[in-house]
Amino acid sequence: MDYAKILKDIAIELVEDKEHLEVREMPSLEENVVVLYVYSAQSDIARLIGRKGMMANSIRQLMSVAGRKTNKKLDIKFESYE
């Protein structure tokens, strides 16, 4: 399952600068953990995280449903370009 593509499809609808949105899957030390990094412009990272992290938590919950099908834990981190 391509978790990076699924996450990018979700996040691209939330940002204004769609060209600078990037989602990367990074290696993890644990075999059942998938680490995903969302890189976005500084102005859009606040939209992705939301107030008190509400949007980020919602994205993580939505992605965890995809991870349950393959017994994977998804660790999603948000970073901005400066």
TrEMBL record:
Source organism per UniProt: Thomasclavelia cocleata
Domain of life per record: Bacteria
Any single Pfam family the record assigns to this protein: KH_KhpA-B
InterPro entries: KhpA
Keyword RNA-binding applies: yes
Keyword terms: Cytoplasm, RNA-binding
PANTHER family linked: RNA-BINDING PROTEIN KHPA, UPF0109 PROTEIN SCO5592
GO molecular function, a single term: RNA binding
Name of the protein: KH domain-containing protein
